[in-house]
Amino acid sequence: MRLRVVDLETTGGDRTSEIIEVGIVDVVRAGEGWRALPPVSKLFRPRGEISVHAMAVHHLTPDDFCDDDPHCDEYRLREMLLAEPADLMVAHSARFERGFIADTATGGLPWICTVRSAKAVWPQAPGHSNQVLRYWRGLKLDPALANPAHRAGPDAWVTAHILIDLLKEASVEQMLEWTREPRRVERIPFGKHRGKPWAEPPDDYLRWMAGQGDMDADVVAAARQELARRAGAVTGPLAAASGAG
Predict the structure, then answer these.
(1) Same domain assignment for residues 134 and 211
(2) Which member of 11, 44, 200, 217 lies 3.0 to 4.6 Å from 72 by CB, making a disulfide possible if both were Cys?
(3) So what's the pLDDT on residue 236?
(4) Of 75, 82, 96, which is closest to residue 8 (Cα–Cα)?
């Protein structure tokens, strides 16, 4: 089995942004365990501007690209992602990468999210970013491959080793299931009702959230669940949990 870890750097944080770097690390069987193959990364020249906020994260600036660097498109993504057959795609906070990579660029492979898996396996962790998990789990990684943080190749390398660590405690099938399940959002995470339980906001606010196409899908699902509970469509443990403070 070959698990393909991917990490992206982009020109900004929304779905109109462009991919400007792709990092890939394959994790494969090695006897009774797993090992990471050497990382592969590639820069892609942006068509538009790189936001200042994005540059502050990955430190890629226009000076890092030359006129010969290609732009990123689905064809070039397919070239990288399907250069060799793989069984699964993996990313840390896979929702981000999946927002930029069409299923056609991966051959429709299923995804594992290492953030969701880490939250299930290590709920006591002080945080679940790949760098926090790297140090909290005591991963001894070659700085030449793992640094600098927030570049696609090094971040994919760190995520690959978090995945290997997770595989000591959970199966591939469990991680796939955790990735597919909607994330439980206990309280409203933003806006004028931030921090409140879902039972408190008025119906019209929840209907607004439920109708947003570009909002976090798990937040939208939570708003819809609460509306369904109020309508009497949800009973039992879910209804009790939705109204709990």
Answers:
(1) no
(2) 44
(3) 46
(4) 96
Q: Extract the tokens encoding 18.
A: 């462009």
Question: Does residue 148 have a cis bond before it (omega within 30 degrees)?
Answer: yes
- pLDDT digits 0-9 by tens, 126-183: 999 999 999 999 999 999 999 999 999 999 999 999 999 999 999 999 999 999 887 7
Contact between 41 and 69 under an 8 Å Cβ cutoff? The reply is no
One domain for residues 197 and 173: no
Q: How many domains does the chain have?
A: 2
CATH code (residue 57): 3.30.420.10
Q: What is the mean pLDDT of each run of 10 residues along the chain (245 residues)?
A: 97 90 97 95 96 96 94 94 95 91 94 94 94 97 96 98 98 95 81 92 92 77 88 55 44
Which of 180, 211, 237 terminates a domain? The answer is 180
- Enclosing domain of residue 236: 185-245
How big is the chain by its Cα radius of gyration, in Å? 20
Number of Cβ within 10 Å of residue 192's Cβ equals 8
Largest Cα–Cα distance in the chain?
A: 60
DSSP state, residue 103: H
pTM of the model: 0.79
Q: How many residues does the chain have?
A: 245
Amino acid letter, residue 61? T
Regarding whether 112 and 220 lie in a shared domain, the answer is no
Can you tell me the distance from the alpha carbon of 116 to that of 118, in angstroms, rounded to the nearest whole number? 5
CA atoms within 13 A on the CB side of 229: 21
Rounded to the nearest integer, the mean pLDDT of the chain is 90
